[in-house]
């Protein structure tokens, strides 16, 4: 593990506490599968943590039909596998256990529980498992909510070379068939937070000793999560990523060094997001935000990219922007910087940067989709803006309406809160000519002649 603080005094740690690594697949690795079942049969196991990204908890997809039909035989989806492992524990020892999501998404404990329950309930209906299995899940299995915070970009070529130069071999970065980038090392920042709902029916380690914050209920965890994901960190990352892509800037810290971009996230944070944040308890939101804007996002040692951050933005805008809009209530129509960022995202969907050139954020994808980072709604969204012509703002017409009125995406219809047409106006300004995005950004920041700048 390479920890990379702003002063470039990197810290190297060999993570040597992993006792075993197995490939748990019944068909492709029977031995690994059996070993996983054995681990779940041990009474000493108190908790199992899972990191599979937010997509991993999505069971509203056709791919799970095979697992629903096959029952506990040869599951493929990760949630189906977890359900089988827990069923095996139920059948063999019946001991309680905590299943802990370590993924960076809202209500991760609830998402985890709902996914496992989906398989359990359907298998009960089809006669694959006993009805009492559901009672076991309700009474003896918990799914604590968590808030995880540590910026950990994809493995960097620069870090690989750095490790090789100090004599550490076999650090090759691998891209899987599905496009996942993995390596024997992680490069991460110097700051980390972990908040967990204290709901462990079989006991737990004394994680307080290493700085973990425990909460009594999921609502307490949610306040930390909303502070981070909905206000102080993730919205700023998304805004920087949007304009980093449009300005063809390679790294987040470089976007943060752009005076206009940094001014935008400062104003977005202090004028629009922070005022509606509820203090979570043990982390002060103002200090957390200061650390984000002054230390973490400008960190030149973190190789994080706009292309990575902007991935799957359609799944994120509701939490990162929508919740703040909703929190402002009747005053939402007065917001300026969040709707400007949303307009920037719509402008990004055109796949053309501020210099008028086609973007190339995902070189391994087939054209034209190499122009954007992956997003599960990419084709649909790109199609909705496809008739809008760069340099001809009037072609916008009502083309953005299906996007901006999508309550499923934003959590709110932006037209109903008085922001839809404002976003459209910003968007039209951004497509008028080469350099229009930067010109529009400067205009929205300094329209009142305030040349001092908030972040100064």
Overall tally of domains: 3
Main beta-sheet strand count, sense and barrel state: 3 strands, mixed
Low-confidence stretches: none
- The structure class reads mainly alpha
Mean pLDDT level: 95
Tell me, what is the CATH class of the largest domain?
Answer: Mainly Alpha
The ordered string of helix (H) and strand (E) elements is: EEHEHHEHHEEHEEEEEHHHHHHHHHHHHH
What is the CATH topology of the largest domain? N-(1-d-carboxylethyl)-l-norvaline Dehydrogenase, domain 2
What does the overall shape look like? globular
Treating each run of at least 4 consecutive H or I residues as one helix, how many helices? 19
CATH architecture of the largest domain: Orthogonal Bundle
Q: How large is the share of residues in beta strands?
A: 5-15%
Radius of gyration: 23 Å
Helix content: 40-55%
Give the number of DSSP strands.
11
What topology, given as strand order, has the largest sheet? 2-1-9
CATH superfamily of the largest domain: N-(1-d-carboxylethyl)-l-norvaline Dehydrogenase, domain 2
Distance between the termini: 35 Å
Can you tag this structure with a few keywords?
19 helices; three-stranded mixed beta sheet; N-(1-d-carboxylethyl)-l-norvaline Dehydrogenase, domain 2; 7% strand; 456 residues
Detail the topology: elements first, then pairings.
Elements: E1 2-3, E2 11-12, H1 30-40, E3 47-50, H2 65-70, H3 78-92, E4 97-101, H4 108-125, H5 132-140, E5 141-142, E6 146-149, H6 157-165, E7 174-175, E8 181-182, E9 187-188, E10 193-197, E11 213-215, H7 218-232, H8 234-246, H9 252-256, H10 259-273, H11 285-296, H12 306-309, H13 317-327, H14 337-348, H15 378-385, H16 401-404, H17 407-410, H18 420-430, H19 436-445
Parallel strand pairs: 1-9, 3-4, 4-5, 10-11
Antiparallel strand pairs: 1-2, 6-10, 7-8
Helix pairs in contact: 3-4, 7-13, 8-10, 8-14, 10-19, 14-18
């Amino acid at each position: 593990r390479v920890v990379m603080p702003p002063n470039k005094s990197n810290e190297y740690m060999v993570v040597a506490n992993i006792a075993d690594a197995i490939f748990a697949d019944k068909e492709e690795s029977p031995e690994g599968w059996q070993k996983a079942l054995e681990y779940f049969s041990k009474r000493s196991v108190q908790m199992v943590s899972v990191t599979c990204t937010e997509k991993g908890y999505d069971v509203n997809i056709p791919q799970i039909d095979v697992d629903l039909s096959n029952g506990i035989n040869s599951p493929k989806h990760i949630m189906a596998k977890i359900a089988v492992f827990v069923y095996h524990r139920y059948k063999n020892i019946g001991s309680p256990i905590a299943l802990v999501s370590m993924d960076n998404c809202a209500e991760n404990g609830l998402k985890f529980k709902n996914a496992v329950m989906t398989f359990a309930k359907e298998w009960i209906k089809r006669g694959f498992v006993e009805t009492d299995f559901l009672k076991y899940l309700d009474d003896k299995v918990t799914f604590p909510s968590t808030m995880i915070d540590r910026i950990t970009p994809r493995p960097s070529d620069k870090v690989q070379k750095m490790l090789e130069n100090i004599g550490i071999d076999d650090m090759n970065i691998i891209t899987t068939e599905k496009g996942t980038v993995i390596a024997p090392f992680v490069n991460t920042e110097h700051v980390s937070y972990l908040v967990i709902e204290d709901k462990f029916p079989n006991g737990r380690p004394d994680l307080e000793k290493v700085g973990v914050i425990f909460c009594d209920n999921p609502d307490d965890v949610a306040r930390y999560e909303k502070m981070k994901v909905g206000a102080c960190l993730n919205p700023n990352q998304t805004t920087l990523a949007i304009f980093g892509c449009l300005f063809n800037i390679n790294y987040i810290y470089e976007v943060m060094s752009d005076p206009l971009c940094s001014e935008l996230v400062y104003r977005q944070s202090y004028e629009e997001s922070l005022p509606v944040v509820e203090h979570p308890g043990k982390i002060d939101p103002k200090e957390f935000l200061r650390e984000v804007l002054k230390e973490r996002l400008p960190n030149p040692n973190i190789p994080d990219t706009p292309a990575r951050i902007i991935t799957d933005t359609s799944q994120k805008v509701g939490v990162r922007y929508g919740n703040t809009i909703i929190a402002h209530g009747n005053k939402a129509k007065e917001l300026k910087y969040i709707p400007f960022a949303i307009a920037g995202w719509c402008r990004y969907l055109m796949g053309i940067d501020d210099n008028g050139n086609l973007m190339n954020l995902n070189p391994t994808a087939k054209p034209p989709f190499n122009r954007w980072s992956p997003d599960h709604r990419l084709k649909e969204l790109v199609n909705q803006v496809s008739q809008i012509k760069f340099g001809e703002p009037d072609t916008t017409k009502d083309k953005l309406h299906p996007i901006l009125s999508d309550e499923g995406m934003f959590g709110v219809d932006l037209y109903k809160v008085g922001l839809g047409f404002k976003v459209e106006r910003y968007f039209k300004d951004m497509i008028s000519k080469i350099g229009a995005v930067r010109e529009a950004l400067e205009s929205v920041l300094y329209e009142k002649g305030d040349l001092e700048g908030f972040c100064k």
